[in-house]
UniProtKB/TrEMBL annotation:
Keywords of this entry: ATP-binding, Cytoplasm, Magnesium, Metal-binding, Nucleotide-binding, tRNA processing
Subcellular location: Cytoplasm
Any GO BP: tRNA threonylcarbamoyladenosine modification
A GO molecular function held by the record: metal ion binding
Pfam family, one: TsaE
TM region(s), chain numbering: none
InterPro entries membership: P-loop_NTPase (IPR027417), T6A_TsaE (IPR003442)
Family membership noted in the UniProt record: Belongs to the TsaE family.
Protein name (record): tRNA threonylcarbamoyladenosine biosynthesis protein TsaE
Lineage: Bacteria, Bacillati, Cyanobacteriota, Cyanophyceae, Acaryochloridales
Source organism per UniProt: Acaryochloris marina (strain MBIC 11017)
Keyword Nucleotide-binding: yes
Length: 162
């Protein structure tokens, strides 16, 4: 489970990283994001929505808990657990989102995922942090059946097209 460190020099790079993931991630994947307020979790997911071809504006679900978007390549389920305790999160049975039984399989992207007690068996972990005026991201494929080649991401990020 190699960790891929990336420097994101500006907002556009944060969104481009999301866009690259949105273009490549198959339905059923879960993206767990951690990082302090303002490190770019929502910004990255806005790019992810763009990569999925979602045209609706992606807004922070801090107060709504979950926003769903169904007009892209696959559905996007965007969750923000900031206002919840781990116990409250546990009672929501978020597993239904990644099991894809009660909802159509899509990409599940979760901000403040450190509040999750029960995680999927495999997921993409993204840790964001402040780095002076920029941000640092660390990507890690956790679990066995990751179908995304993370080694390709740095060159895709630094090329001129996504
Ligand atoms: N790589 C970056 N470098 C500098 N500023 C960034 C970068 N990525 C995002 N930002 C800015 O940081 C803020 C991040 O906000 P947001 O995405 O809402 O963060 P979070 O969801 O983690 O609280 C926004 O003002 C955005 O413009
Ligand atoms: Mg946010």
């Amino acid at each position: 489970m190699a960790k891929i460190p990336l420097i994101l020099s500006n907002l556009e790079m944060t969104q481009k990283l999301g866009e690259i993931l949105g273009q490549r991630l198959p339905a059923g994947n879960v993206v767990l994001l951690e990082g302090d307020l303002g490190t770019g979790k929502t910004s990255l997911i806005q790019g992810l929505g763009k990569g999925l071809g979602i045209s609706d504006a992606i807004v922070s679900p801090t107060f709504t808990l979950i926003n769903e978007y169904h007009d892209g390549r696959v559905p996007l389920y965007h969750l923000d657990l900031y206002r919840l305790t781990p116990h409250q999160v546990d009672e929501l049975y978020l597993e239904t989102y990644w099991q894809g039984i009660e909802v159509p399989p899509g990409i599940v992207a979760i901000e403040w995922s450190e509040r999750l007690l029960h995680r999927p068996s495999s997921y993409l972990f993204i840790k964001l942090s402040h780095q002076e005026e920029s941000r640092q991201a660390t990507l890690q494929a956790v679990g066995s059946d990751q179908d995304l080649d993370l080694e390709q991401i740095p060159s895709a990020l630094n090329s001129t097209s996504a």
